[in-house]
Structures are given as structure tokens and as C-alpha cells.
Amino acid sequence: MLRTSSLILLAVVAYSIAAISPSALAKDALPSWKEGPAKKAITDFVKKVTTSGELEFVKPSERIAVFDNDGTLWAEQPIYFQLAFAIDRVKALAPKHPEWKNKQPFKAVLDNDMDTLVKSGKRGLMELIMATHTGMSSKDFARVVEIWINGARNPKTGKLYRDMIYQPMLELLSYLRANGFKTYIVSGGGMDFMRPWAESVYGIPPDQIVGSSIKVKYEVKDGTPVITRLPELNFIDDKEGKPVGIHYHIGTRPIAAFGNSDGDFQMLEWVTAGEGPRLGVLIHHDDAEREFAYDRESHIGKLNRGLDEAEKRGWVVVSMKSDWACIFPYQCKAAASEK
Amino acid sequence: MLRTSSLILLAVVAYSIAAISPSALAKDALPSWKEGPAKKAITDFVKKVTTSGELEFVKPSERIAVFDNDGTLWAEQPIYFQLAFAIDRVKALAPKHPEWKNKQPFKAVLDNDMDTLVKSGKRGLMELIMATHTGMSSKDFARVVEIWINGARNPKTGKLYRDMIYQPMLELLSYLRANGFKTYIVSGGGMDFMRPWAESVYGIPPDQIVGSSIKVKYEVKDGTPVITRLPELNFIDDKEGKPVGIHYHIGTRPIAAFGNSDGDFQMLEWVTAGEGPRLGVLIHHDDAEREFAYDRESHIGKLNRGLDEAEKRGWVVVSMKSDWACIFPYQCKAAASEK
User: Fold this and answer.
1) Tell me, what's the ipTM?
2) Closest partner CB to B251 (pick from A61, A207, A243)
3) Is A56:A49 a contact under the CB 8 Å cutoff?
4) The CATH number of the domain where A267 resides is what?
5) pLDDT tens-digit series, residues B193-240
6) Which residues of chain B have a CB within 8 Å of the CB of A219?
7) Which range marks the domain in which residue A59 is found?
8) Chain A residues with CB inside 8 Å of B60's CB?
9) For residue A190, is it within any domain?
10) Number of domains in chain B
11) pLDDT value at position B24?
12) Which of A190, B9, B294, B299 lies at 20 to 30 Å from B226 by C-alpha?
């Protein structure tokens, strides 16, 4: 009897220890991060704010971390993945829109004429978004996104877009959550474009996704209540818009912010100007071999002011080339199996 | 040695059992709710969606419950508490605004002339809100609200506004959270008016508060980043606005909705029209003795269509008089100490 009950008790102890926090006992919660100043700055920060009794301890309800998406959690080359989605949608919808054959920017899309498309600028882009992202219910839009994300592939890598996420950032998200952080996306991309897949890909639920949005209205159609997507912008969650989006959605100033471009500058500025311990991190795309190399002159994900001011502002610049052992999960798996 | 280690192990076992879920072991998680159809409908629903293996089981990530605030979580008589706040602010700010002595609706406020104030209508109300809720940083506004909520008293009861919350609803919030629900406020009231105190009063954090909002902008003032409140409406979270606010902030259709007025009609309609198990609840203010009695003809918290359609829509109507053993926490404590 004593033996059996002792075994049960031991099992309970083992379970209790395992339940405390998987990462607390793990040797290295960030295995794809090479040892160095970037990794150390992140882990030092997390230890500091989670060590009870320390002057810089932060209570769990205030452990909020915000992440840009394009170029920070997943890639953004050769074009923003959401733009690739819009282009694919234009092609899919073209048979119902014969007028698009002679109307820009749709003609450029159908002709695969990227130069003309780029020249159509923000106005052209907005027309594409409105034509492909609105005029249906929120439920139907979510389904269209879901089908696309599970099948569409990047022309440069031939990989699914959803697989072009950064393994070191996935580890970082898990590490922060295991340490009591709430992790949010704060992206210039469309809120409703990210929601259908961000939970399965990043473990981030729909209510923790802040992004640009179009107007919607509630209506009862033939007795069925629906949320209808209207062809009108609601909010641009970029640059000065990011601290505003954080205000509306989160309502507490985060203590850590992760970005990769000057579109994230104000978010990092806002987050790191708060009192107490703060962490601002910029991911620098300097690895042409394993990912893409671009910064000051790039049309996508331009990082100029951020590079100039990171040091004086105490922001950590992560070199994808030097600080990350591998980048995409499929690269990390391949590297692991070679060992 | 064996004895000591056994004691430690037993302590761990006791801790483990206690940690499962405090409410799972409690006899009655809703002691202020009288036994009856309303309480039964709520507890049956919760059991159904949380019983693993049941056809109607709902996974925790989809257990989302939304609550109106005014008249559902706290009282709203003789005037919306946020309007009382605006009136108190006008009086406090009056010395800096000599022009208000001769300008409506401010004159009416300073003269305690409620008739004229009411006659100024929505436009007058909006002027009061803009004059008292904007033109400062979000941080300063939060501080002003916090000071007010901890000191201002209701003229009818003499109690702090923050104490005029409904004990049965506090129990319900805890009960739902103990059963894996995320609880949100979805209120016509100001998001930034509720955020400074909703966590300490209801246990609802700032990012789970959906409400009406004014526009804000991000700016760097003398080197310090601030969120400045602008005198412009951003969003009205009432009637058809409630499902829209839910879309923007939550992004998942809730499975349970609690309201008390026709301003909550569309929210209940949207929530209960979804597939699978759904719960719609209306709190009916029918207790003139312990709280206030009002419904179809009331200027505040009018409940007319809701009463007409509740039965056919399968919504639960809670009688504050018959279904609640006590209403405000101070009444509940007094009742408990009399026993």
C-alpha cells in the first residue's frame, strides 16, 4: 500500500514540476538564437522583469509584448504576402469582371506587369485591396484567406507563405508566453487577413491581432445577421498609427516591441519611452543567402532611421545572419537532421 | 525521513487538487442567484459547453462572453454614471472657462438645471463629453477618471459609484472565467472611461474592454511621446455598433451575451444567431425597492423590443427582483451578516 501510494504521489510531484513552466526548466528556450549580445539582451530583460523581488519586476498583467508581422514574424519579399493574396484574388475574380482587362491597376495584375502595378502607387494598391477584400461577409472573407494561406506559394522559395515564418521568432513568442507575457501582433497588414491563420501559425488568437482595417457594418440579411465588409478604409496601423492601434486595442503600454522597418519606429519609440524596464528590438535583414538582404534603400521594409538611432535609443539590432542559427523552420529542421 | 517527505508530498497533492479549479469544487458558484429558471439556464449552458465529449462542447479559445456595462454590470440611475463624471468635470473645470456661465449646455450643468441639460439632447451631451474627455493625454485622462471613481457618490444611494455593481454579475463573471471563458465588456460607454477601474472592480483587463471611443493621435511633445485625446468621435459602440465593436476587438463571435436594454439587442441577436450552443441574457430592472424599476418607457436603459422578442428568440430574462437574492455587494454583505 505504501509503495503504491508513494508511486502515485511521486507521479503527482513529477506532474506538478512539469506543470510549473516547461521553459523554466528547459536548458535553452531559444535554440535557434546564437549566443551573443542580441540573445543576451532579450533573455536578461525577461529574467529581470520576471524575477520576483527585483526592483525591475513587472507583474504579469503588464507583461505585454508587441510584434510587427511583415518582415518580423514572417518574410515580406519579393512583395508583401498580402499583396500576393490580392493579386491572386484579382486573377480568381477576373472572369466575373471583364472590365478589368482594360482598367488599371487590374490590367497590370492580369498581364503580370509588375512595373505598371508598382507605378500605380498607393492609390492603385488601395483599389486592389477594396476590390478583393470587401463586398462580402467577414465569414466569407475569412474562408477565402484560409484557403489561400494553406495553398499559395512564394515565387522565390517555392515554399508555402505560411511556412516562411521565422523559427527564432516562434521560439521567442513561446518563451515570452511561458514567462507570463501576452503576445500581440501590431501590423500594418490587414487585421482580418491575419486573423484566420495567426493562431495556428503563431499561437496568437484573433483578439490579440492589431492591424489595418476596413469599415464593416452589421445587418440582418434575409433573417440572418452578418458583418458586411465595406469598401472604405477604417484604420491604417502603420508608423504613428501603431501606438494609436495599441491604445485602442490593448489599452496598456507594452514593455517590449519587435519590428524590422521604419514603419515600426513609432511603436518602438512609444514602448521604450515608458517607465521601468523596456525592450525594443529591430530585426535586420542582412542575410541574402538564407533569406533576403535589404534595409536603407528598400521599397519594402525600409529600415533607415531605425538603424541610425537604434544605438542611442538602446534598441537591440538583431542580425539575421549572425544572430540566428537558422531562419525558416524548414531550414532549421534540415540543419538539425544533418547533425 | 519518510514521514517528512510524505508530508511534503501530501502538501503537493493538496496544492494540486486546489489548483485544478477553485469553482469546480465549490458547491454553488452563484450564491446570490436564487434557484429558478434563469440560474438553471445559465448553469446548464456552462455545463454543456465545458463537458468534454458532449456534442455541444466548446473549446476554451471559443468560450467568449460579452457583457454590457451600464445597467448590466453596474447601475445607471438616475443618470449614466459617465454623465455624472462629465458633469463633475465641468464643475471642476469651470473656473478656467468663465464663458461657460452663459453657454449651454455648460450653463445648465453649473446651474444644476437638469431639465435644460436633458433638452440639449445628444448634441449637448456630445459637447459635454468633448469638453471634459479630450484635449489631454490618455495618461492624464486615466488619472482623472481614477480619482473620480474612487471618490464620487451616487445622489440616490449615497454610495460610491464603483460600489453600485451587481454582486450576482460579479459571481457570474468569476464563474465563467473559472470555466475557461474570456469575459469582455462591450458597452456604449467610453472605452477609456472604463479601463482605469474595470480590472480592479470586475477583473476585466483593459484589452477586454470594448466601448465608444474618441480619436487619439500619437505625437512627440518636447521629446516625450504621448497619446493625445482629440475632440472628435471615433466609434459609437451601441446598437448595430456592438457587433461591429466585437468584430474589431475580439474577432471571434462570442457564445454568450448579457445586456439589459434595447441598445444590446443587436449584440444578443448576433451572438445567439451563431451555430452551436448560445446564451442570450437580459437583466430586467424590476426591483424598485432594492435598485430601480424601469423598462419600456425609460429614457435610460429602455428595454422594449427585447422584452417583446426574448421568448421567441430563446433569450433568458433575469428578474432582478425574483432571481437575485441581493443586488449590490453592500446589500449582500448586510444580508449575510444578518443570518
Assistant:
1) 0.91
2) A207
3) yes
4) 3.40.50.1000
5) 999 999 999 999 999 999 999 999 999 999 999 999 999 999 999 999
6) 240
7) 28-77+165-215+235-338
8) none
9) yes
10) 1
11) 47
12) A190
